[in-house]
Specification:
Blueprint: E1 3-4, H1 7-29, E2 34-40, H2 44-59, E3 63-69, H3 75-86, E4 93-96, H4 106-112, H5 124-131, H6 140-153, E5 161-165, H7 172-181, E6 185-189, H8 196-201, E7 205-208, E8 226-229, E9 233-237, E10 240-244, H9 249-255, E11 258-259, H10 267-285
Parallel strand pairs: 1-11, 2-3, 2-4, 5-6, 5-7, 7-8, 8-11
Antiparallel strand pairs: 9-10
The protein binds guanine (GUN).
Keywords: Amino-acid biosynthesis, Histidine biosynthesis, Hydrolase, Methionine biosynthesis, Multifunctional enzyme, NADP, One-carbon metabolism, Oxidoreductase, Purine biosynthesis
Subunit structure: Homodimer.
Family: Belongs to the tetrahydrofolate dehydrogenase/cyclohydrolase family.
């Protein structure tokens, strides 16, 4: 029988830990983390994410600033706001909610963020630092997935074979670097991989991050393996919308020892790790010891 990995509870605990660290640091150093979130346009899913980021940042004692800009905002206006935030000493973390409306150059915007304030960990400097084994700000979803893995399997993941299904810049590739840094043997499968099923059957850890509903079948999971499902897909069942992951959960849970549900698995970890990264960014900017080193 498998054990569910309760990401919601883990994220709640992580936020409580962060809130108490914020109190301690404020007492000693008289500063508190500042997070700026920039939302351009009116994408409904993005509005929900941004509201939650704001809510949890405030709950953890952060200074939280949200900039809601119209979809007609120009590239120059957006870049100017980022420069202002880069120069604002009370802001330690900047997040531009993706996707940006059509016509805006996402790459140029993300690369304009000061790498020290890049709490998404998407800037090439932060990706590069992760790749050379000197991680600074790590992308939130891979970081959250690693924390869940370590909670169940212990800190030492040495020698475990991890198969990552998906090679995105946001999840698959940084997850590969993170697991390598933890001495896992890592295989990255993607849409052109010849036999993803056989690769998964060899895995001690399967990370599914492709964005295809239930692509990873239950009989691809080795008995006793750990499954981290990063997918959040909305599908129609009998005229109703249902959230499913990239893993066929009902069958996979028969083989896995530990498995994340969707929803309630990796999802809640992303915002908790954004807050963790903002605290890390503040500590790095002020040369304070980071209480959350990996
Ligand atoms: N949109 C969906 N997920 C994310 C994320 O992790 N960061 C940003 N900036 N935008 C997103």
């Amino acid at each position: 029988m498998s054990q569910l990995i309760d990401g919601k509870a883990f994220a709640e605990n992580l936020r409580k830990t962060i809130a108490s660290q914020v109190v301690d640091i404020e007492k000693e150093h008289h500063i508190r983390p500042g997070l700026a979130v920039v939302l351009v346009g009116e994408d409904p899913a993005s509005q929900v994410y941004v509201r939650n980021k704001e809510k949890f940042a405030i709950e953890c004692g952060f200074k939280s600033e949200t900039f809601r800009l119209p979809a007609t905002t120009s590239q120059a206006e957006l870049l100017e706001l980022i420069q202002t935030l880069n120069n604002d000493a009370t802001i330690h973390g900047i997040l531009v909610q993706l996707p940006l409306p059509k016509g805006l150059n996402e790459e140029e915007v993300l690369y304009a963020i000061d790498p020290q304030k890049d709490v998404d960990g998407f800037h090439p400097i932060n990706i590069g630092l992760l790749s050379i084994g000197k991680p600074s700000l790590i992308p939130c979803t891979p970081l959250g997935s690693l924390l869940l893995l370590q909670d169940k399997l212990g800190k030492d993941l040495s020698g475990k074979h991890a198969v990552i299904v998906g090679r995105s810049n946001i999840v698959g590739k940084p997850m590969m670097q993170l697991l390598l840094s933890q001495n896992c043997t890592v295989t990255v499968a993607h849409s052109r991989t010849k036999d993803v099923a056989s690769l998964c059957r060899e895995a001690d850890i399967v990370i599914a991050a492709v964005g295809v509903p239930e692509l990873v079948k239950g009989d691809w999971i080795k008995k006793g393996a750990t499954v981290i499902d990063v997918g959040i897909n909305r599908i129609e069942v009998d005229g109703k919308t249902k959230l499913v992951g990239d893993v066929e959960f009902a069958t996979a849970k028969e083989n896995a020892e530990f498995i994340t549900p969707v929803p309630g698995g990796v999802g809640p970890m992303t915002i908790a790790c954004l807050l963790r990264n903002t605290l890390t960014a503040m500590c790095q900017q002020h040369k304070i010891v980071d209480p959350n080193k990996l």
